[in-house]
Amino acid sequence: MQKTLDHIGVAVRDIEESIQFYTDVLGATLIDQYRSDAMGVESEIAIMDINGARTELLAPTNNTTSPIARFLKQKGKGVHHVAYHVGNLDEAIEDLTAKGIRTLPNSLRINKHGRRLIYLNPADTEGTIIEYCDYPE
Asked: Pfam family example for this protein (predicted)?
């Protein structure tokens, strides 16, 4: 199954400060900014574009339950996950299962932009949080 880099997720403490850095220093364009209070997300998200390359800035909105808050406490600011676009998410999940790769419980969801996604278990991915996603019509 072919995979292409979709975006990189970056954990930040101050979303506005980070947006300013990406726009002023890196020349990025802010594509969208929104808040997700969904269980297991609880983050403010800013989608940045630099010449077609996407970065998602992720700031926790709940310091108790947000996975981004936990990440910041454990590892600090920086790359949170790498996302790969797969042609068909259902087939990709079947392929992972056949290879003995687990996904994170309750991480399968559809985001605001219609992207279906799931996170692979970092225990099975050399410690890296990897997202698989597709964009069904």
From this structure: Glyoxalase_4
